[in-house]
Design a protein that fits this description.
Length: 455
């Protein structure tokens, strides 16, 4: 899953840097042929004409349903295909972690540094992972300055804490038990952090069958050579399909000669793209963009709207009841999209309960949150069409919550609108500043739209 990190400047033709990258790509394509990875003659890999770094482009017109390449399962890099797979299986119990990524990360630590690794030509496309520019690698001051209010700061803090914990409590003890394969001086915390970002940005997770979704744990991540070269846009034109023997990238739209071919990483908001992949889609390209309103922000708005101690006590009791119903939590968020609320059930119930008078809440609580089935369900549909028709008290709470959320950013919408519309000023920003601006601006537009709908 290729990131939109800044492309390295390419020196004049024939320079060592350019020749090295060309040799790496040529070696990778030769390796693909040897392992049975079949690339259609109608497409080619290039760094020219792509939105970022390597990409896949159409050599001629393509129709819907055309197979662009086929990857045999033996070419996948995972905990089941690595040369240390038997060791990972033997120590499986000691490698369990919150992320579930440890076996793959150990596979990558070994294969990336082993001179005889089967996947060495694949890794040559990322000689030192320097193209990875996730916010976790930014100086803390820069992260705070550019990403305050977006939700990315909190996500990065959790990542860094989990990475440190996994390395010290799982990775390091495992390596020290197998010094014939690992060297803590070579397989450092910094390399581990880079590989975590590599898995974030480039790995794939095979979906479970629908009948298994509620019963089985998600499949572990794996690296899919060639598929991870494709860049992402919300309006993608290709999709990865899975079968028992192989994986296939198939077109989902007609593609003209010379156009870049895009995969999808899923329906992801810009803050998620920035956090996981190190880039954001320029406004208004990301139709999947969202803005979060922290659940505790809604509680704060409700408490601010209470004029007496009795009313504040009622809000606290209502919030505790919502927690018991598992509708809200201290770290949860209500997710607002361009057209509708994605966490509709949770937000509807929260607005309903926090909008109740004391007697109504008492009766509702006695019924443990169950309601008469004949109640009009449209009032709980939260979309751009229905939000203006909500009860006045619900709209006010939603309005106040959106306003408080906007206050958490370090700049306002107009300042960022002016910066985006000034091409000269925007061009002077660093790539990080441009990407962060796109994240903030999309979120603020969604929140301002919510303010208008609840006015």
């Amino acid at each position: 899953m290729a990131t939109a990190a800044k492309r390295p400047k390419v020196a004049a033709g024939g320079s060592p840097a350019e020749d090295g990258r060309a040799d790496a790509l040529s070696g990778f394509l030769d390796w693909c042929e040897k392992v049975g990875l079949e690339l259609s003659p109608k497409v080619y890999v290039s760094k020219e004409g792509t939105v970022s770094d390597y990409g896949l482009l159409a050599r001629e017109d393509l129709q819907i349903g055309e197979v662009l390449f086929t990857v045999p399962r033996a070419a996948l890099l995972s905990q089941h295909t690595t040369s240390i797979r038997s060791l990972l299986e033997k120590d499986q119990a000691s490698l369990e972690s919150q992320s579930g990524w440890v076996p793959l990360l150990l596979s990558l630590l070994h294969e990336y540094t082993a001179s005889n690794s089967h996947w060495r030509p694949y890794f040559s496309l990322w000689p030192d992972f320097s193209s990875l520019d996730h916010p976790m690698f930014w100086p803390e001051e820069e992260r705070v300055r550019l990403l305050q209010g977006t939700g990315i700061l909190e996500a990065v803090d959790k990542d860094l804490a989990n990475i440190q914990l996994e390395y010290t409590s799982i990775i390091l003890p495992f390596m020290e038990s197998h010094l014939d394969l690992f060297d803590p001086k070579l397989h450092t915390p910094e390399l581990y952090r880079r590989l975590v970002a590599f898995v974030m940005a480039y790995s794939f997770q095979e979906p479970l069958d629908e009948e298994d979704e509620d019963e089985k744990e998600p499949n572990p991540p794996m690296m899919v050579p060639m598929a991870d070269i494709l860049n992402h846009v919300a309006n993608h034109n290709a999709n990865l399909e899975y079968s028992l023997e192989c994986l296939k990238m198939v077109t989902t739209q007609p593609i003209s000669k010379g156009q870049e071919i895009f995969n999808t990483y899923g329906q992801m908001a810009n803050w998620q793209l920035m956090h996981m992949y190190g880039f954001a889609e320029p406004y208004p390209g990301n139709t999947d963009d969202t803005a979060d309103i922290q659940m505790v922000t809604v509680r704060r708005a409700a408490l601010q709207g209470a004029s007496t101690e009795v009313e504040r006590q009622l809000v606290s009791e209502q919030w505790d009841f919502l927690c018991q119903l598992e509708m809200v939590g201290e770290e949860g968020a209500f997710v607002i999209g361009w057209e509708e609320v994605l966490t509709e059930e949770e937000l509807s119930m929260t607005l309903k309960v926090l909008g109740m008078a004391a007697e109504e809440f008492k009766e509702f609580k006695e019924h443990e949150g169950w309601e008469d089935d004949t109640e009009d369900e449209e009032s709980f549909t939260l979309s751009n069409e229905t939000i203006p028709r909500l009860k006045a008290s619900w709209k006010k709470l939603l309005h106040d919550s959106a306003r408080l959320t906007l206050e958490s950013y370090s700049s306002d919408l107009k300042a960022e609108q002016d910066l985006l519309s000034d091409k000269v000023a925007y061009g002077k920003l660093t790539l990080r500043e441009q990407q962060a601006l796109q994240v903030r601006y999309g979120q603020k537009r969604i929140l301002h739209q919510l303010l208008e709908l609840t006015s």
